[in-house]
Amino acid sequence: MAAHIIIVEDDEDIAALVAFNLEREGWTCTLIHNGTEAWEQIRTQLPDCVILDMMLPGMSGVEIFTLMKAHEFTNNIPTLFLTARAQMDDKLECLSLGADDYITKPFSSKELKLRVRNLLHRAQAGAPRLIVRQGPICVDKITQIATLDGEPLDLTLAEFKILAYLMEHPGKVQDRYELQQNILGYSDTTQSRALDSHIKRLRQKLGEYADCIATERGVGYFFSPPAEQSE
């Protein structure tokens, strides 16, 4: 069956242009120009993908997406923000909430189709998400940006890789030597102090959430989700 995509865009001309390009790929599109109506349609139709503008009458794109993430049947629908808001803060806000992708206007039709195709493919294949969120901590493996409460964390590449890997496997203890070899590329086990140093600095940067990087003595480290996420 053809993928069904809901396009939420208050500019009818832009919505029609997006639909025209996506329908040429064989996908079916529903166009909605009001945020409140969009949420009703999304939760009843359960589309294969949602394209959201941020600024909408009735309910903003961020408000719609927050509702989607809060409901069991909509929280895994691939969602792409297509918006004129090009500020990094806006992008970080959406990605920290768990959005799958973000494109600014004006946009390339070829790029839009490619990104939508990738989202649909990952969803159909059950591929791991490239954006991982645990409570207020979010890592974007595409941009290699990590955020805490929507604010970017100043991490080194090694620190980002460690945080992303641990967050992808919450509660599962990761052997320290495997972390050194597979994540940091250290083949020499004498480099263990380097890993400890990365973990120490990472905890410092996480501040009050430092305990999310937990230690299993004699084994390694694991990610312990914040209390409100561990139920």
Description:
This protein has 231 residues and is of the alpha/beta class. Helices cover 41% and strands 20% of the residues. It is built from eight helices and twelve strands. The chain has a five-stranded parallel sheet, sandwiched between helices. A hairpin with a 2-residue loop joins strand 6 (131-134) and strand 7. Helix 2 packs parallel to helix 3 (61-70). The longest helix has 17 residues, at 109-125. The protein is elongated and about 60 Å long. The model has no long low-confidence stretch (mean pLDDT 87).
Core attributes:
alpha/beta, four-stranded antiparallel beta sheet, five-stranded parallel beta sheet
Entry summary:
The protein has 231 residues and is α/β, with parallel strands linked by helices. It is built from eight helices and twelve strands.
Overall mean pLDDT score?
87
Tally of DSSP helical segments: 8
| Spatial order of the strands forming the largest sheet | 2-1-3-4-5
The span between the termini is: 37 Å
Task: Return the structural class.
Answer: alpha/beta
- So what's the overall shape? elongated
Strand content: 15-25%
**CA-atom Rg in angstroms:** 20 Å
Oligomer: single chain
Helix content: 40-55%
Number of strands: 12
State the low-pLDDT regions, or none: none
